[in-house]
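SUBJECT: protein chain
CONTENTS: sequence, structure tokens:
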Amino acid sequence: MLFVRDVRASGAWYRDLLGAATDHDRDDFDRIVDGDQVLMMLHRWDHAEHGMPARPTDAEAGLGVMVWVTVPDLDAVHARAGAMGAEIVSEPHRNPLAGWREFTLRDPDGYRIAFVQW
């Protein structure tokens, strides 16, 4: 689960990026889904649940954490990311140690998100 400033805006961003849908679409919580598979969850920072502290500074957002999302079509996600103007941190490449293709971007809340395809 990612804690974000604006759940609706982040939800729309991830739905566009992943070509996915939502099954919650609330101000405080959203689940990004593909059919019956939950791809990721988003939660508002200032909603006191799950033991999370108050919203960190932008410099702290995602510090020490990288989220990995497995996708069926890495090239399609990368193309959508480019069309959306997302900050690409590393372009698609084969990771020989893991045996998959991957690329990394920074989302609107500053998280580094790696997308992988087996």
In short: The first helix runs from residue 7 to 18. The chain has a mean pLDDT of 88. The longest strand covers residues 87-95. The chain has one domain: 2-52+61-117.
